[in-house]
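Practice problem: predict the structure.
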Amino acid sequence: MEKDNGRLFSLDLLRGLDMFYLVCCGAIVVPLFKLLGASPSCIRFLHEHPWYGFTLYDLIMPLFIFICGAAVPFSLGRRMVDGKPGPGYWKHVWGRVALLWVLGMFVQGNLATLDLKQIGLYSNTLQTIAVGYLAAACILPCRDIRVKIAVPIALLVVFGLVIHFGGDYTKDGNISQKVDLAVWSAILPAGNAHVELIRKGGYSWLLPSMMFPVMTFAGCYSTQILRCDRLGEWRKACYLAVFGIASLAAGWGLYFAGVEMVKHIFTVSFTLQAIGWSVLLLAALYVLTDIWKLRRGLGLFILFGQFALTAYIAGHAFRATVRSASDRVFGGIEHFFPPEFSPLLKGIGFAVVVAAVLIVRRRLARASAKG
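Answer:
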């Protein structure tokens, strides 16, 4: 299996595709499909998170958690000695967890306001990645395959039973949001914006923290399959395909048994669907780019994949700044097109500015490495 600068090409590509879709979907894809006359249901599938069901847009967040797990054997594997955590292992892990947590509070937790009525302590994808990363760091040194399989299964079972018998799957009746409301209402001041968002049917985070490690483990185990020297390339791809299909089948089986797919509370059926599609996407990209070596024209997505955190911060925390820069640079182009093209042109300009930021970031990284 070919690697580029110590990185797995298909993993960088999957991360890049996911990040590009997250940052640029609303800006480019939705305006484009509206111009093409796509149906409202198609637009919802591309760019909305309905309470029930599973849309393409629903896959973005769990795919990031999965990708984080897939990168763990690379990022932490080199910090292990004879299969055990080496010097600095846990310092690196806790440092990364702290960084992700604070950045999550900055991006969506309103940390910069310094107002306790606005700040959310746990409300962002980066923090779910931190939870999964910590769990993966704990289980990676374990050599007993039975433990590695039993832990995610146990988490799925316990979480599933609590959610299923502790309430229902509606916005007002599920136990997951009740737990979040009870905990955050006791900690944060009255009228906190994060608490109010949960009360209106937003995401809950505390109980679903049992699911984030499961998605991370799935990514970690997928990469370990791809790195197994005893397996041939096509057998690795087949193993991943079987893993993905089995997860999808389990998710659909639970759904038909009455376990709704709800991303806002990360039900077991939703989690298994997310894992299944994530594994199958990795398997497909592995075949295309690592076995068949079809890599031409993918530079933009690799750029987004290698500097995903920078793209995320630029596209979300500094969205207004990026839009302003785009309007200044590309605003005049709109006069040459009909008014209905304006949203699409603004979206393209937004994506171009984010890509320019990533190019600068890459040059700085290369300059730092050289010197």
